[in-house]
């Protein structure tokens, strides 16, 4: 395991200097799962707040663009692409978020933030029906580009 890059020699948190890194196309895909009861799944189409899946998609896209404002050591990135998909599956809603850029640092945090906020949005739009909703398995599925290359879960 390499040392953590967000700490200086004295152990103080710092933003990593990526100015010497080569700009390459970088992409990351993350997912989240929102566990919903059958009653909540059946009620999704009649939600008075609107379509939770579509609102979650928009929220995830917006969140990816705001990642550096939420996570202190993240670099603001010029995102060239963000996509969030939310679909009903057995037991809940599966979310997958993709982020891409051409930059000197990766977009894993943008993809993870998009998936997380999309999941929170599904919760927000359905919580009136069930307070026992669970958000789980927020994970990085894959990433590409940069010095560390390809990663697949």
Task: Describe it.
The chain has 153 residues and is of the alpha+beta class. Helices cover 28% and strands 31% of the residues. It has four helices and five strands. A five-stranded antiparallel beta sheet has the order 2-3-1-4-5, with helices on one face. Helix 2 runs antiparallel to helix 4. It is elongated, with a radius of gyration of 17 Å. The two termini are 17 Å apart. 34% of the residues are buried.
Topology:
Elements: E1 24-35, H1 38-43, H2 52-65, H3 67-70, E2 79-89, E3 92-103, H4 108-126, E4 134-144, E5 151-152
Antiparallel strand pairs: 1-3, 1-4, 2-3, 4-5
Helix pairs in contact: 2-4
Which properties best describe this structure?
28% helix; 4 helices; alpha+beta; 31% strand; elongated; 153 residues; five-stranded antiparallel sheet
Helix and strand string, N-terminal first? Answer: EHHHEEHEE
Fraction in helix: 25-40%
Q: What's the end-to-end separation, in Å? A: 17 Å
The rough form would be described as elongated
From the helix content, strand content and strand pairing, which structural class follows? alpha+beta
Radius of gyration: 17 Å
- Strand arrangement within the widest β-sheet reads 2-3-1-4-5
Given as residue ranges, the uncertain stretches (5+ residues, pLDDT < 50) are none
Number of helices: 4
Main sheet specs = 5 strands, antiparallel
Question: Would you count the extended β strands for me?
Answer: 5
The overall pLDDT, averaged over residues, is: 91
| Beta-strand residue fraction | 25-35%
